[in-house]
Specification:
It is a single chain. By secondary structure, the protein is of the alpha+beta class. It has helices at about 20-30, 40-55, 75, 90-110, and strands at about 5, 10, 35, 60, 80-85, 115-125, 130-135, 145-150, 165, 175, 185-190, 195, 205-210. The strands form three sheets. The chain has a seven-stranded antiparallel β-sheet. β1 and β2 form a beta hairpin. α1 (about 20-30) crosses α4 and α2 packs across α4. The chain is globular. It starts with 5 loop residues before the first strand and ends in a 12-residue tail after the last strand. It binds N-oxalylglycine and manganese (II) ion. Manganese (II) ion binds near residues 133 and 194.
Length: about 220
């Protein structure tokens, strides 16, 4: 087993499970979502912030939106740029290790059968937005659980950039989240429409999704 990186100064397998995991599982079971501050060690959010702000413009790609892309509607729905996470960078690996611990913990307690994860940094330049959407359409996607992590130190209410969350058929948001450093939002991907309001400053986050394995006999469904 590779033990190449550390979380919060401790080798990963000696660190135990993060203190916030029981709360995440309890709130997911009760409400289908969990909003939490200080979810990860400041050393990790700091490393991820350093990483995302060190990426050059060329290392980001304009974000796509699945079906609507076909109709050329992309820029009208979202205007962020993204960089997919991988194993080459130490900070990204440390986040992926945390995400893997959470995957195992959630499966153990909620039997969701989370199978894989895909995630990206997102950069919303001033004025960028993501209109109301859901991350998965019933029966069309194997995205099960969304995790958004915010990476913006010293973010204030008048900076904007809130994420609004709606009940499945709701017209008024039930939550308005400023994208503050170390804050996370975890929610069932099919259930909760949400949107990102324009900000006055550059806004950074990681958005990612746990997927279930929808392979059936004779048909392989790779997590691509
Ligand atoms: C997404 C998304 C929310 C955010 O990338 O699908 O909804 O607050 N991101 O960054
Ligand atoms: Mn989304």
């Amino acid at each position: 087993m590779e033990r190449a990186f550390e979380v919060n100064g401790l080798p990963e397998d000696e660190a135990g499970e993060p203190a916030c995991f029981p709360r995440i599982v309890d709130e997911l079971a009760a409400h289908g979502y969990c909003l939490l501050d200080d979810a990860i060690p400041p050393s990790l959010s700091g490393a991820l912030h350093a990483r995302v702000t060190s990426l050059s413009h060329a290392e980001f790609a304009a974000a796509g939106i699945g079906r609507a892309q076909d109709f050329g509607q992309n820029e009208r729905i979202r205007s962020d740029e993204i960089h997919w996470l991988g194993l080459d960078d130490a900070a990204e690996r440390a986040w992926l290790a945390w995400i893997e611990q959470l995957r195992v913990y959630v499966n153990r307690h909620l039997f969701l059968g989370l199978f894989s994860y895909e995630g990206h940094f997102a950069h919303y330049p001033p004025g960028a937005f993501y209109k109301r959407h859901v991350d998965a359409f019933r029966g069309e996607s194997n995205r099960m659980l969304t995790v958004v992590l915010y990476l913006n130190p010293e973010w204030h209410a008048d900076d904007g950039g809130e994420m609004l969350m709606y009940a499945p058929q709701g017209e008024e948001p039930f939550a308005r989240l400023l994208p503050r450093m170390g804050r996370i939002a975890v929610f069932l991907s099919e259930e909760f429409p949400h949107e990102v309001l324009p900000a006055k400053r550059d806004r950074y986050s990681i958005a990612g999704w746990y997927r279930i394995n929808t392979s059936v006999a004779g048909r392989i469904d790779p997590p691509d």
